[in-house]
Amino acid sequence: MASFTARFSSTAAAHFALRRRLSFLVQPPARSKSCVCMLRTLTETTPTLSLYGEDGIHRSPRPPISLPQDPNLSMIPFLFRKLSSNVHSPALVDAQTGQTLTFSDLKTQVLNFSKTLLDLNISKDDVVFIICPNSLLFPIAFFAVVAVGAIATTANPLYTAAEIYKQFKDSNPKLIITTPQFHDKIKHLSLPCIMLTTSKIPIYSSSDVALPPVTQTDAAAILYSSGTTGTSKGVVLTHRNFIASALMMTSDQETYGDSRNVFLCFLPMFHIFGLSALLYAQLQRGNTVVVMARHEMKKMLSAIEKHKVTHLFVVPPVVVELAKHQEMVKEYDVSSVKEILSGAAPLGKETMEECARIFPNAVVYQGYGMTETGGPISIGNARTDTPYSGSTGMLAPGVEAQIVNVDTMKSLPPLRRGEIWVRGPLVMKGYFNNQKATMETIDEQGWLHTGDIGYFDNEGRLYIVDRIKELIKCKGFQVAPTELEELLLTHPEIKDAAVIGIPDVDACEVPIAFVVRSSYSSITEAEIKDFIIKQVAPYKRLKKVIFIEEIPKSAAGKILRRELRQRFLSKL
Question: Which part of the chain is the AMP-binding enzyme C-terminal domain (predicted)?
Answer without folding.
Answer: 483-558
